[in-house]
């Protein structure tokens, strides 16, 4: 019975494919139509049904499906399109088989349903597995990338290190910031660390608490911390929330903070040549021509 | 097991190399104050580079020793606190607010020298 049905499907594959291709066109979403050329669309659809039939012929072999799904993922085809296409295939096949047979009893009907399900289900499963697998992979890569970016530490000169913070700070990230900060201070032997919060959109009590804790810990290991990049709205929030930052030196910009840091390490920035000398030199060289 | 206290000119150097238990800590407190009294030292550096764990009691004793030494006219600097130790202390809510700290022994001595000269 089962083989019988399979033979019917395989023998009439051309008709089924034709029916399927006619219907699949309506599934093609608007946004999808623009991103893919008609030719590519046609080819992939053909390959799609071929893969389905190969799988049916080889009694459920999924090797073709795996290669095909990898190709789809690289092309960026939406999973919903593929599952819809498979459901459509199931419907078309069932319709075809039923319309071309004279038996109409319930047994035959359920046998057709079961066997068609058996052909289609493994393919759907495999495709969904491949898709979610690739999504999870991307997600984990992005998480690692995010972690790498979350607490960078830049040693600028001897004894001065900068930690630029960008984006929202949550408890997990705050912990990482503190670890990186302390390890970095020891590693680079920095006397002053500048924490730049220019890129932190919101400073609430929790974020402030984390920053104060980090600064305290830095002080404990024998270094100094300056909080820089406090924007006007951040200053307002801090005062309105009643956060006490008196123990933590603060500066409005990284530039000012850096100058303070240089002062703390008994250094300063000087111009090698006064500005006037440069202008005079320029005038002289013009006159010489 | 007592902790050795070394004298260098006007300063006392202490490098804590073992895990400190409560008894050692108390013993150390007495020893240091005695030594300050005997030598008339004006500065003390306590180096914690090889200390991996500080609990709240040890932290309290350290804080006390520092206040006591201050009373006796000796300025104390803590040096070489490990990142993990600093994090534990902050988590425990021990901020050692009025304690001078430095990255290593060298910078600790420089700090003492600068503060005592003023």
TrEMBL record, chain A:
It comes from the Bacteria. Transmembrane segments: none annotated. InterPro entries: Bact_StressResp_Reg, Globin/Proto, RsbRA_N, STAS_dom, STAS_dom_sf. GO terms for molecular function: heme binding; oxygen binding. It holds the Pfam family Rsbr_N. Keywords: Phosphoprotein. CDD domains: STAS_RsbR_RsbS_like. SUPFAM superfamilies: SpoIIaa-like (SSF52091). Residues 150-261 form the STAS domain. This is RsbR protein.
From TrEMBL, chain B:
This is RsbT antagonist protein RsbS. Residues 1-112 form the STAS domain. Pfam families: STAS. PANTHER family: RSBT ANTAGONIST PROTEIN RSBS, RSBT ANTAGONIST PROTEIN RSBS-RELATED. SUPFAM superfamilies: SpoIIaa-like.
């Amino acid at each position: 019975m089962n083989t019988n049905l399979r033979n019917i499907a395989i023998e009439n594959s051309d008709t089924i494919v034709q029916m399927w291709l006619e219907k699949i066109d309506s599934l093609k979403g608007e946004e999808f139509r623009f991103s893919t050329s008609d030719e590519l669309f046609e080819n992939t659809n053909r390959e799609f049904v071929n893969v389905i039939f190969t799988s049916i012929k080889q009694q459920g072999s999924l090797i073709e499906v795996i290669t095909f799904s990898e190709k789809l993922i690289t092309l960026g085809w939406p999973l919903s399109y593929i599952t819809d296409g498979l459901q459509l295939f199931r419907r078309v096949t069932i319709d075809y088989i039923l319309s071309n047979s004279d038996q109409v009893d319930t047994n035959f009907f359920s046998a057709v349903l079961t066997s068609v399900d058996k052909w289609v289900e493994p393919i759907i499963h495999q495709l969904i597995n491949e898709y979610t697998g690739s999504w999870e992979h991307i997600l984990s890569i992005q998480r690692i990338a995010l972690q790498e970016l979350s607490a960078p530490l830049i040693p600028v000169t001897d004894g001065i290190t900068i930690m630029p913070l960008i984006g929202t700070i949550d408890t997990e990230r705050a912990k990482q910031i503190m670890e990186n900060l302390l390890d970095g201070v020891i590693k680079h032997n920095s006397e002053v660390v500048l924490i730049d919060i220019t890129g932190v959109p919101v400073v609430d009590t929790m974020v402030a608490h984390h920053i104060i804790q980090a600064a305290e810990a830095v002080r404990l290991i024998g270094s100094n911390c300056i909080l820089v990049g406090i924007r006007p709205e951040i200053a307002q929030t801090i005062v309105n929330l009643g956060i006490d930052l008196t123990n933590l030196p603060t500066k409005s910009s990284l530039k000012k903070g850096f100058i303070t840091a240089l002062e703390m390490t008994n250094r300063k920035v000087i111009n090698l040549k006064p500005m006037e000398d440069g202008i005079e030199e320029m005038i002289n060289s013009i006159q010489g021509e | 097991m007592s902790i050795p206290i070394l004298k260098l000119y006007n300063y006392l150097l202490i490098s804590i190399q073992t895990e400190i238990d409560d008894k050692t800590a108390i013993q150390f407190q007495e020893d240091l104050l005695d030594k300050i009294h005997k030598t008339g030292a004006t500065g003390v550096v306590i180096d914690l580079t090889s200390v991996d764990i500080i609990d709240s009691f040890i932290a309290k004793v350290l804080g006390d020793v520092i206040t006591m030494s201050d009373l006796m006219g000796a300025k104390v600097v803590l040096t070489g606190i490990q990142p993990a130790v600093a994090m534990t202390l902050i988590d425990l809510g021990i901020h050692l607010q009025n304690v001078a700290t430095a990255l290593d022994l060298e910078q600790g001595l420089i700090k003492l020298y600068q503060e005592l000269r003023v």
